[in-house]
Amino acid sequence: MGYRLDSGGHIDRSQPVQVRWNGRLLGAFAGDTIASALLANDVHIAGRSMKFHRPRGILSAGVEEPNALVTLGRGAELEPSARATMIPVREGLEVRAQNAWPGLRFDLGRVFDWTARLWPAGFYHKTFKWPSWHFYEPWIRRAAGIARPPRLPDPARYDAVNAHCDLLVVGGGPAGLQAAQIAARAGLAVLLVEQDFECGGQLIGANVLINDAPPAVWFASVIGELAASRNVTLLTGTTAFGLYDHGTAGLLQRRDLHHANPTIRQRYWRVHARQTLIATGAIEQPLVFEHNDLPGILLAGAVRQYANRYAVAAGRRVAFATNNDSAYLAALDLTILGVQVPLLLDSRPVGPKVLADALRARGVEVQNDAVVMSATGRRSLRRLRIGTLASNGTIIDTRIVDCDVLGMSGGWAPTVHLYSQARGALAFDDARQCFVPRDPATPLLCAGAATGCATLGESFSDAFRAARLVLERAGAPAAELVRLPVVEEAPVSAAVGDVRRTPCGRTRRQWLDFQHDVTVADAELALAEGYQHIEHLKRYTTAGMAVDQGKTSNLNTLLTVAELTDRKPSAVGTTTYRPPYTPVTLGALAARQTGPRYAPRRLLPAHAEHEALGAHWWEAGGWMRPACYPRAGESMHQAVHRETLAVRTAAGIFDASSLGKIEVSGADAARFLDFFYINNVLTLEIGRLRYGLMLNESGVIIDDGTIARLAAERYLITTTSGGAGRIARWLEEWRQCEWPDYKVFVTPVTTQWATIALAGPRARDVLARFATDIALDNEAFPHMSVREGRLAGVATRLYRVSFSGELGYEINVPACYGPALWHELLSAGAELGVTPYGVETLLLLRLEKGFLDVGVDTDGTTAPADVGFGAIAARKKAAFAGKRSLGRSDNRRADRMQLVGLSADDATVLVSGAHLRLPGTSEGSDGWVTSAGVSPTLGRPIALALLRGGRARLGESVVVHDLGRQCTATVVKPAFYDPEGTRLHD
Amino acid sequence: MTEKIAALVAQSSMSSSGRVLGDALRLIVLPSRTVIQLRLATHTPRAIATIRIAGRTVPEAMNTWSGDDPVICHVAPDAWLLLSSRHEAADLLDAIRSACGKRFCAITDLSDAYVTLALDGPGAVGILMRGCGLDLAPTAFGLNACARTRLAQLPVIVRRTSNERFECVVDRSTAQYLFDWVEDAAAGLD
């Protein structure tokens, strides 16, 4: 039965705090964690396990906690699966247990435990076969998981920041702090992170002396020095969750540990460190025996830490079981604090004599060759059945011992997660029975318990070794700037006995993974079914795959597997360590990149003018573009209809500034560009422009636009709005990698220019109202030409080009004149009926005309011949990107998806995305509608579609399927309006 | 020139006189200026050393800048960006053309393609490191440093003009986004 000790501990008794646990108020003190508060209030059941809903208590006092996962807060601020061992208490903090219904003490889910034989490892592969997995899936998905995520949007703010340092020290224990102090004094920029809300690791409140004083004195002085150093950043409550290439580390800083509502809840640090030192300590491992998962069974080091750091006795009669020396220290500390310790079981024949004698002198029975056979108790530990290991492997002299807490120790596993993530090799240490870094200096530095050090003295010496290497590699002065602390501590050995699993009892009640309820029997089953490889066994049994990622189960699982298969642990190996070390809030990774900052929004030069006209905005290709300009009382559809007719009968203006523009100049510009188009660029004359279709190396259409020749060695190409960056990079890559000797430069100039398209039968009349030195008549300035000159006094590149099918111009002026030009066109053209039109209208205009919209009417398989450009591609003799691929037999198949027009047989509106079926077929799809609309000019629904073998089916009928509706349409040529193009040339 | 600023300010909520964000940062949209990109095929130091624009040599070391007007930034192995508040684009274009002579080069007026935002004050580095991966410590990114990099997902050219002042040359279409981003970042610091 847990209780608070009358004195001691690293808590502030002058600051009482109350937390709410499942609605009940618990008293605690500042400095407590939720877990220590629970123990101090004699709460032993902290949660229920995932699969069997078994009651589970607090196992550890740190990051490895598999059981005491709790839900914090409520509503939008709810945080599921927080480790109770890592969260400091604060006034009013609301904490709830997880995975239990209707309540923690009585949970109906326990029925899975009583029927556990039905749910062995991999049960869902075997049990849910009939009628099919999908029949059971919804129910199983509901049962899976142990907590519920918040349903409301997270109101908290998160932050992400980049940081650089000479040395990143992960871990604020003695080794980490010592190394950081040495490096900081040598002038290195040091970043030290500690996941706990206080530095000190296992040593907070421990009974050792550093330089003749309690460890708190040494810690306070080093932390004070580091905090005052300008070249040191010290982050507590911060976890290094991943180590990546080139010294990059990901940190998660919890700023909500002490405050309910900080401005920034959590901060994600991307650290670029020149050197990294891993001083992450070690994690104590459980012993394996029958019912080793009962509440009241804790790790021995945790029992010690609760007593020393939090002044909490986990129970009134605390027994210990161990296979190494460390539990002796825990037992000794507890007796010093006045807690009754009846018994310490050591599975080894011989223990540390000095410590054993000290314990015996304090009335503790120390028994060697002794193991726990099983634990019993209804909801928490009541008694242990113990026995003596005989030399023949059997267990003799069994007896029952009453106790309410057992502190167990199966040895310490160095926290090598980060080291291994960064591809550091591990080696199995037979004496310590754990995996250690094979070389603690390569590729990363490790120090302290993370390399296997068992005592404080060893850790300090190791930190000095590592710090010397750090300074050497940084080229910093190697002078001895700090003196090695003098440590007075009990002599313990790092050696670990080889009994970690009691060789008797029911293996299906011997737990390996507490959170996922994986037992020794599950491992036996997996092995029997052929899952010999540890990576297979892990996935089949789900051992180590829970939220805690197996920090207290991976080692036991693999050592058990080694034992069961009679292999060496090194032959079994470890599973792969992957980031994150502990769960990371998605909000922190997204940080500020949410809502309007999710992705950059690009604004047109005349953005404000469009806004003033009431533009309905579309986000396309990263740009905010007007879709259309609805007038008061007008729907979008009506606006598009009106704008379309205005362009067809008078004139319209469209902001095309987002169109990609790339200048290509130099003596080799023509032959360079010629390679990227299926069209011939070499024959293009100065002042003319040509439509160009671009393919990738596979012969697939990736972009289209115009190629204009401004001067003998200067071209300006246009791309789609979304393709501008991609195409410029692609050209640059070819230039740099394939033709470094070409005299050619590629310069993106998209936003240097504002581009306003002016289209309609009266377009020339509108333009004629401006003072210009460019001759506008049809003969001097025919369709597909370009002129440079001045318009209304502004330097202008004037294109005669059309995407609408009407007489059209594109007026390019320096971007700062964009708003003025837009304004002038509207006022000068007012009496000629100039109407602003948006992208939606433009797309309808081009649909009537049958012009291609790359990426809409094409996909990642469309070749030129599929959209009517086969002859042009075939005619070009010179090499161009994708040419060879066009010769593949697949590109000559008659049943390819080909672009056709569709004309609805009745008034049914065709919808893009609708599927097509040829008459007589009843299965699959023979194509789909790519663009569709009701043509205001023709007064009927029209569409473009990709149809299987479509070009040979003109005049035939197809069935159009759309969400259960059907209609028929006739296949026509993909040009509905002015197919001869006479209007363009007027 | 003034109509350019007016147009820019009109299109956005950006203030041309600068905005004070807390006591540690001022965010300023600099008056529009001439921006010329020079690309030179021969980037051997010897060839560069002979080029003088407005009486100044072009910086040879990558990611450095020199001069006060025009400022010449070496932003890529074969690319320089010239920034000027005093020179008209046409004059500067002529000067560069004659300086480059017969060398193969591309000289492009990009005055309208860019907007310059200045972050001024002790809080500037703290804001930049929230959106930019560069090491901005004075030892790594000193007073003559500039770099083509990413800031708030945007391609920018960052230039340090004093210990606590940085100028970010950003595409005009995304200037408003960057302005808003800086405001947001500054508001959320604690």
The beta-strand count of chain B equals: 13
What general form of chain B does the structure show? elongated
- Tell me roughly what share of residues is in helical segments of chain B: 10-25%
Approximately how much beta-strand content do the residues of chain A carry?
25-35%
Mean pLDDT, all residues of chain A: 94
Helix content range of chain A: 10-25%
**SSE pattern of chain B:** HEEEHEEEEEHEEHEEEH
Poorly predicted regions of chain A: none
User: What is the count of β-strands of chain A?
Assistant: 51
Q: What radius of gyration of chain A results from the CA coordinates?
A: 37 Å
Helical segment tally of chain B? 5
Derived structural class of chain B: alpha+beta
Oligomer: heterodimer
**Low-confidence spans of chain B: pLDDT under 50, at least 5 residues?**
1-6, 8-12
Name the largest protein-protein interface in this structure: A-B, 48 and 45 residues
- DSSP helical segment count of chain A: 26
**What's the mean pLDDT score of chain B?**
87
Biggest sheet character of chain B: 6 strands, antiparallel
What is the C-alpha radius of gyration of chain B, as a whole number of Å? 17 Å
Shape of chain A: elongated
Strand order of the largest sheet of chain B: 1-2-10-13-12-11
